[in-house]
Structures are given as structure tokens and as C-alpha cells.
Amino acid sequence: MPHITPELAAMELWPTDPDAARALQSRLASRVRVHPCDPDAVRLVAGLDVSYGPTELVAAAVVVDAATLEVTAQATVRATPTFPYVPGLFAFRELPPLLAALEQLPVEPDVYLCDGYGLAHPRRFGLACHLGVLVDRPVFGVAKTAFVGDAAEPSPRRGSATDLVDRGEVVGRCLRVHDGVKPVYVSVGHRVDLDSACELVLRLSPRYRICEPIRRADQLSRRELAASGRA
Questions:
Q1: Alpha helix (H) ranges present in the chain?
Q2: Whether the Cβ atoms of residue 140 and residue 198 lie closer than 8 Å to each other
Q3: φ, ψ (nearest 5 deg) of residue 222
Q4: Is the dihedral of CA 85, 87, 93, 94 positive or negative?
Q5: Given phi > 0 = left and psi -120 to 50 = alpha, else beta, which region is 171?
Q6: In b/e form, how buried is each residue of 77-110, taking b as 16+ CB within 10 angstroms?
């Protein structure tokens, strides 16, 4: 349901050259806004993920009720990648089909979760930042590994966390979502802060290491990709 802001819609948002893509990230990074997002006010959360086949990808968006974690809406888009596989530039491969999937949703989520990075990125403009700036909605990233920076191992207890630091700057948080389970890496995308994002991740991860909206989106994209392979 989100729409790209008119000012940004007039820009060349999808270059096919990696150098031009890096330059665009650096230019748009100044538009990221970090401020608190009240977790108690969040009702609908969209999880986003992409699965890849040999020649195509499937982008999935799954909206869950923040209180019950029940799925309220979902959409997928199948596409052929139009941008090369370059670390740090995944947004240029994945965001066009993800935005197309979001346009199909019958509801507008309060918050969007990406399987990836926000400020925890070499140019401080990962996929979560890119999406957030384009649609001007609260977005953050949750990843299984760190792309940049270092973090001390948090204590084994659920909810413990340490700062993820890159070049002297805190760019995310290493968060333990379950006792004794490997942590995840949370980073701000847009219109949210780390405290709010981490609280939401804990609320949305009652059983698994991967928070429920992203886990559901991953499952959906994999199912759709497998179905296309059988067709």
C-alpha cells in the first residue's frame, strides 16, 4: 500500500550501474530519520523477504497482527533480477519487486521489517533505509549476521544486547532473542530508533530466532518459488 514520495518518484531511483547505485545511496543517506516509534501503538507489521532461483526471484510481503501474530494479508511478486549481485547493493535487486508486492496489500502496515540492514551498512543506507526513505514509513532491518562493524557477545539471556559499532559509530545492536540462541543484528532503517526496534523484535519473536513477520515472508517466498519450479 505505500507510495513513493513525489519528489523521489521524479528521481532516477534504479540505476543499473554499481557505481551509480553507490552514489545514489550516499546521496539519499542524509534523508534517513531516527526517532522513537511507540511499540504499543503498532498494530500491523509487514515482514519482507526475497528467495532466489536460478533465473528468477520471488519477493514476499506478509502482514501480521502485532498482538496475535496472525497473518492478516500477504502478497508475492515473481521477477527476473535486473541488477547484478553486488554486496551492499541488494536494494537495487530486491526493492522493485518488494515494492510491487507491497502495492498489492489491502492494508497499510504500521511498521516494516526487512531481512537485512539499515544503518549497519558501509554507506549507512542498507535496504531498510532505502525502503523507509522511499515510502516514508517506519522500517528497520533484522539480520542473522553482521555486514559491517563489531559487537561483543551479549549475555546468554533473552533481551540482552550489545552495540554494533563500525568506525566508531553505533550502527545497530546485537540482540539475544532467546536464552542461549545465537543473537540477531538489528539496525534502524527510517523513522524508528534502536530501542523501539529491539523491543518490537523481542515481541515478534516468541518462539523462533527469526521474528515472525520475516519468518512468514521467507516461508511464503520459498513456497512460491518452489511452485514456479514445478509449473
A1: 6-9, 18-28, 91-104, 127-135, 194-203, 212-230
A2: no
A3: -65, -40
A4: positive
A5: alpha
A6: bbbebebeeeebbbbbbbbbbbbbbbeebeeebb
Distance in angstroms (rounded) separating the CA atoms of residues 148 and 122? 7
CB 94, CB 127: distance < 8 Å:
yes
Judge whether residue 143 has pLDDT over 60: yes
For residue 225, give the amino acid letter: L
* Whole-number pLDDT of residue 1: 57
Interval 7-28: pLDDT, tens = 676 567 899 999 999 999 999 9
C-alpha span between 40 and 179 (Å, rounded): 24
C-alpha cell at 118: 539499515
| Beta pairing partners, 163 | 173
* pLDDT of 231 above 60: no
Hey, what's the cell of 134? Answer: 522511499
Amino acid at 123: R
Closest CA to 172 of 195, 138, 191: 195
Write down the pLDDT at residue 39.
95
Give me the residues paired with residue 164 across strands. 172
Assigned C-alpha cell, 22: 553507490
Q: Lowest mean pLDDT of 3-17, 67-81, 101-115, 215-229, name the range.
A: 3-17
Rounded to whole angstroms, the Cα distance separating 125 from 25 reads 6
